[in-house]
Amino acid sequence: MKYFFILGSNPVLSLAELSAVFSLAKNSKEIKLLGNVLLLDFDNDINPSKLIKKLGGTIKIGRIEKIANRYTDQTDKIIKLLNPGEGKFKYGFSYYGPGKFDAKTLAMKIKNHLRENKVSCRWVTSKERTLSSVVIEQNKLTGPGFEIVLIADNKNLYIARTLAVQPFKELSYRDYGRPERDNKSGMLPPKLAQIMINLSLAPSPYACPEPGRGKGEGRGEVCLLDPFCGSGTVLAEALIMGHKNIIGSDNSTKAINDTGKNLKWIEDKFKIQNSKFKIHDLNATELTKKIKPNSIDTIVTEPYLGPQRGKINIRQTVAELNKLYSNALKEFKKVLVANGRIVMVWPIFRVTHNLERITPNLTDFKIINPIPKNLQKNKTVNLTSRNTIIYGREGQRVWREIVLLAPDL
């Protein structure tokens, strides 16, 4: 079965996440990247509604129903896909591809057909040529309504249906509804935390932990550590994604207390049982005081990114962070299993038109390119010169550099 995945606002990061989740570097099935759309071929059906809740970088998932010639009228094929039930039938279109798309003509043909068959219907429109997750959710276009997705390349038209959209309400609730939230420090969005967790584990198609990859502290389960846990965003998302054996640490008493409250809240709201989370009041450069050597499978963390407000002495901040991160990485090496992974955020400071980056000492580690070789040459894929991904938006003073590290054996 062929499925499409609409990549998020940072397509390279979204692609990296899907590459890890589906092990695309080892996957010999058909893989096609068309702009911000990834097409994948699976032997069996997948569960888009379940899967999308564990993917932070995917906007929509749907199934390819037909592959046709882009330059011929495919109205009849599209009409045959529709299955209106009782009541008013809502439908809409999203077009991904080069050139213009005449949605109005197609919509009128479908409306006339439905009315001839005595089906009350409404065409759901948008100012953009694609419908957002909000529009799709509000109009129930994943059922009983219908979003028709048309994906074009130079010759083919992929006719598809959207089956699931990103759960934006739930993500917002987890971000703004939690009991403790520190607005004075850099706040990691839940969906970015999801992406980072997936990048670190490269697990099964449903982004659940891969048991027994390393020693861990949990009888063969993957052990995930966030040594700069802050208010616990990474740990909370790990719990929701199915990870049981997680450890958080921070040298701030407030952060430890906030994390504890937030994780208890997550357990209650999402009815999570039998989790084994631990929280240590611990500096990231002294992890071995409370964490056993070679016991952690994966480290996912956004460390202290430097001052977030006021006038910043960039050179001094970069020097201080280089020292902090270098010392932390030495300690990471001690607690990490031999085949473990680290996903870190490194800050990028915007100074007028220049970007100031940190350069920690990587004696014990190497940076891993998160994109499979068969997709690296695609024009959509833009990595930094050191094979990392930049995450940020206009107006931010501090951007994030997503770095995937492995021990340099």
Structure description:
The chain folds into two domains: 2-169, VC0802-like (2-Layer Sandwich); 179-407, Vaccinia Virus protein VP39 (Rossmann fold, 3-Layer(aba) Sandwich), CATH 3.40.50.150. The radius of gyration is 23 Å and the shape is elongated. Helix 1 (11-21) packs across helix 7 and helix 7 packs across helix 8. Strands 9, 10, 11, 12, 13, 14, 15, 16 and 17 form a nine-stranded mixed sheet that branches. An eight-stranded mixed sheet has the order 2-3-1-4-8-7-5-6. A hairpin with a 2-residue loop joins strand 13 and strand 14 (354-357). It is 28% helix and 28% strand. The protein is of the alpha/beta class and 409 residues long. The model is unreliable at 203-219 (pLDDT under 50). It contains eleven helices and 17 strands.
Structural class: alpha/beta
Helix amount: 25-40%
Give the percentage of residues in beta strands.
25-35%
Number of strands: 17
- State mean pLDDT (0 to 100 scale): 90
CATH second-level architecture of the largest domain: 3-Layer(aba) Sandwich
For the sheet with most strands, the description reads: 9 strands, mixed
CATH topology of the largest domain: Rossmann fold
The SSE order reads EHEEHEHEHEHEEHHEHEHEEHEEEHEE
Low-confidence stretches: 203-219
Put the structure in a nutshell.
With 409 residues, the protein is α/β, with parallel strands linked by helices. The chain is built from eleven helices and 17 strands.
